[in-house]
Amino acid sequence: WGNNASLVYESVGVGENVNNIKFAYHSFTDILNLEYCFWDIGGKNNFGCVNLKRKKYCILNKEYTKEEYEKLREIIVEDMEKNPYIDSKGRVYKYGEFFPLEMSLFPYNRSNAMRFFPKTKEQVLSLGCDWDDYENPTTSFTLKSNELPDTIKETTDSILDEIIECENCARSFRIVKGELGLLRKMDLPIPHECPKCRENRRFARMTIPRLYHRDCNKCNKPIYTPYSPNDPKIVYCVECYQGEFN
C-alpha cells in the first residue's frame, strides 16, 4: 500500500516503512533489502524466505552472519543467472524476474485477476496458468430469500438452521452465528444474496485499475485517467484540479 515506501520492484502487498524490496509478497512494516520473500514481517536482508518475523540475514529461512549471507547470496544470484528456471512454456526466469505464473496457488479464474483482467479459458491456458472448471453445485434450500424477515429485529436464532436460496444465482448459503451477531449489532437485515453475489456487487462498484487516454474537461490537455471515455465523470489534469482549491 506504500506508506513511506521506496525502491519497491515487482512486489505485492508491501508497505509501512519499506525500502529496497524486490519480488516480495505480503511483506511489510519496517522491512529492508528483501528478495523473493513471502510473509516476511519486519525482516531485513533476507532472501527466499517464507513466514519470518523480525529476522535478518536469512536465506531459505536459515540465519547467517552478515558476511556469510552476502557471500551465499552472491553465489545464488550467479547460479540463477547461469541455470535459470524454465517454465512449461519455455519462458526463462533468471534473477530479476518475479515468480513464474505456473507457481500460482490459485486458478486464474478463481482469483481477482479474472475480475480486473478477464480472459477466456484458452487465453489463460496459453499463459501457462491454471483454470478451474468446477462449478459450485446448487443444493436444496429450506428458505427462499423472499421469505426472510424484513428487519433483523424480527429474526430469531432459528435462522442459523436454515439453508437460504440466493435471489440472484439460486445457490444455497447459510448464516453463521458470528455473522448474525454482527448483523444485529449493526441493525442490518439478513442478506438476500449469497456471499459470492455480494462480493461481485462490491467489485462492480470498484474502478478497474487501467489507464485511458482522455482530455481534461477544463483545459483539454491530454491526460491519463482510470475513468474510461464512456464514463460520464468529469476529469481534470493535475493543474486544473489543484486550481479548484486556490
Automatic annotation (TrEMBL):
It comes from the Bacteria. This is Zinc-binding domain-containing protein. It comes from Candidatus Nomurabacteria bacterium RIFCSPHIGHO2_01_FULL_40_20. The lineage of its organism: Bacteria, Candidatus Nomuraibacteriota.
